[in-house]
Structures are given as C-alpha cells and as structure tokens.
Fold this protein.
Amino acid sequence: MRITKTVEEARSDLRELRAGGRSVGLVPTMGALHDGHISLVRAARAHCDEVAVSIFVNPTQFGPNEDFTRYPRTWDADCALLKSEQVDLLFAPSSEEMYPRGSSTFIEVADMSDRLDGASRPGHFRGVATVVAKLFQIIEPDKAFFGQKDAAQVAVLRKMVRDLNFNLELVVCPIVREPDGLALSSRNRYLSTEERKQALVLSRALRHVEEESERGITDSSRLIRSAGEVLAQEPSVRIDYCRIVDPDTLEDLADTSSGALAAVAAFVGSTRIIDNLLLPPAETR
Ligand code: PAF
C-alpha cells in the first residue's frame, strides 16, 4: 500500500495506478476505521481496479464546540486494516496540505446544507462538500463510496456532483450494524457501556417505523409519533431530530407512499449519534 501525504505525490502515484486505463475507486474517511468503512473498501474493490482511501479529519466540517480535537485518531490500526484489505493508495494529508494558508474557496449546496444535520450543525455540510470536492479533484476517482448511515451527507454530495458536473459515480453502501442493531460509527467509541445500551433506542425506533410501514401506515406524522413513543423509553436520550423526508431533497414528506427516509439524531450523554431507514415505495413493502 502506497501512503502519500501530499497532493503532488498522490497525483503522481495515481497517474501510475491509472496506467492502461485502470479504474480508481475512492473511499473518503476521517479514520478511526470500523467495519462500516471496510464494507466501503470492499465495495470499491469489487467495482474498481484500484482502491484509494483518504484519511483526513477535516477541520472545516466541525463546529467550534464540536469534537474536532478529541475525534478518535487511530493511525496505526487504520493502516494495518487497510493493508490487510489490500488497499492500493492511502492519502493522508495534513490540514496545511489540504487548506494551505490563504485558502478561501468553499462549496455550499444551497438549501440542502441547512436541513437535518445541517440545521443542528451550521456549516457542517459546507465543510463536507468542500473537502469532498477537493478530494475528487486530487484523486479523480471513477467511483466514490459513501455509507447510507450519513443519509443527509449522501443527499448533499449527490446534489453537488450533479450541480458541478463531477465526472464520477457516487456509490452508496448499506448501513452496517452491530448484531444488536446499533449502527456502526467512529463516535460509538465515546459511549460508556450504559450509554451504548441507551443508544440502541434509535435503531429500535426505526425498526418500529419499518414494522408500522409494513402494516400499511404511510402517514408520516403517525409514523413519527410512534417512533417518538419508542424514543421516550430512554428519557436520558435527548432527541435532536426525528423526521421523515424525501431522501433526495431532505424536505419533510407528509406521506411515505412514494418512498421516504426516516432519520433520527440524538445526544446520548454528550455524544451525538445518527441513524436512518430508507422506506421503499408502498407497493414494494
Ligand atoms: O463521512 C465522513 O467520514 C466525512 O464526512 C467525509 C465524507 C470523509 C468528509 O470529511
């Protein structure tokens, strides 16, 4: 596995990897890798000839009171994992390399950037869109792989790719869960044993929405109410949002008949976690 820390080196490595028309898949990450990331790496391996992974804890997507400085950094374990997955290129730039002094250009996906997580985390999606656009410019992947777990991020990036004519395909891979239902996240390692148990209420609430939908209920307010009843079983979990939206625009949907995204975010202790469920169109439930 080649490891590069500069844009110039990454570009020159990629020229070699791409020789003879080989395709490149990119998995952008912030490190602290878990099986969810590995599922993206394996999907990239299945779809592309060469697999590039980036590890960069992107300062511009964290708010001033968020966890940028204490975000888990597990470099040695991440490298070992990526080597064992036979990743071809690991791009791990410094903040100065990604944002040289004087950088002042940002990408804002208007409207969508302030929905769901964007509403609770002002500026978050501006940081995500900017860094992902930069990674696309540096790596020039044929396909880029993201997890459905960050459903709002996926919607924002899809729109950015369309609006800015990026010549690549976004591939979205399913949420990977622990056997008890908890969606994998690098932030799960902040949870105490007790909080981890409380956090299960998110996937339980979404499972309840799925069951109600399978019973033919399509009225969003009713589905949200019943998710709220499950969430209330853990009074110490503070709900940030619980909504049913259009998965492409992130706008609220009154009815789920044509398909919908049920998304929830909550604070368990001081850790903010998210989870979601894609509801297919009613006739296929
Ligand atoms: O999903 C993430 O880990 C990050 O938001 C991403 C896409 C790597 C951008 O920093």
